[in-house]
Write a structure and sequence with these properties.
Nucleotidyltransferase, domain 5; 7 helices; about 210 residues; 4-stranded mixed β-sheet; alpha/beta; 5-stranded mixed β-sheet
Length: about 210
């Protein structure tokens, strides 16, 4: 099966062309706030490098977050549009699950802003939590990876945080492809209400 997978939920947008368990090409674009906007260019380049035509694809798999709301919406909209145009299925894989697929990673930790992280693993369901609270409920030495782990390294106590430049902090799209068999629909995993919704609710209550 030939799969195109990508994730735009964090400040690192990843993409991968995958065939029957083999990575044909992949990319990771580091561009805070605009990484999601560049993912289609990354996909076009990867497919050109591998000689894969859009019509060859069997499946699109997109990251469902949690992460930045704008990036997540861009990625899922692109995935649905590609699937519709090509007449192929589209599935979604949690960005946290993709991070946890990294070798030895026990807990995925994505920066949730507002002094919190989105975390899952080690017996925890996906949730927004303060870094100190996360450290309190996990055994010391638990490997914790993701951009939230990097940002809040000094607040995560005795958890094992890989070096900042470790590939374990990247939600590689190859993991999304590998998890495709058990994937669900391409629906966003927000966990928390968007800031805009919170602001509207506050105005309505005032």
């Amino acid at each position: 099966m030939l799969i195109l997978s990508f994730d735009t939920a964090t400040d690192i947008a990843t993409a991968c062309v995958w065939r029957d368990g083999d990575v044909l090409a992949e990319s990771a674009t580091h561009a805070r706030s605009v990484a999601a906007q560049r993912v289609l260019a990354d996909i076009d380049r990867l497919m050109g490098d591998t000689g894969v035509a859009p019509a060859d694809l069997d499946l699109v798999v997109a990251g469902t977050g949690p992460g930045t709301f704008t990036g997540l919406r861009i990625g899922l909209a692109a995935a649905r549009a590609l699937g519709f145009a090509l007449g192929i299925p589209v599935k979604g894989v949690s960005t946290l699950d993709a991070l946890r697929a990294g070798d030895g990673v026990g807990v995925a930790c994505v920066d949730a802003r507002r002094g919190e992280v989105f975390a899952a693993g080690g017996g925890l369901e996906a949730q927004a939590i303060a870094p100190e609270a996360l450290a309190d409920v996990l055994p010391p030495g638990t490997v914790c990876a993701g951009d939230g782990a990097i940002r809040y390294r000094d607040r995560l106590g005795a958890l094992d945080i890989p070096a900042d430049d470790s590939p374990l902090h990247v939600p590689w799209a190859r993991h999304h492809a590998a998890l495709a068999d058990g994937a669900g629909p391409p629906e966003p995993l927000y966990i928390r209400a968007p800031d805009a919704d919170r602001a509207l609710a506050a105005r309505a209550a005032s």
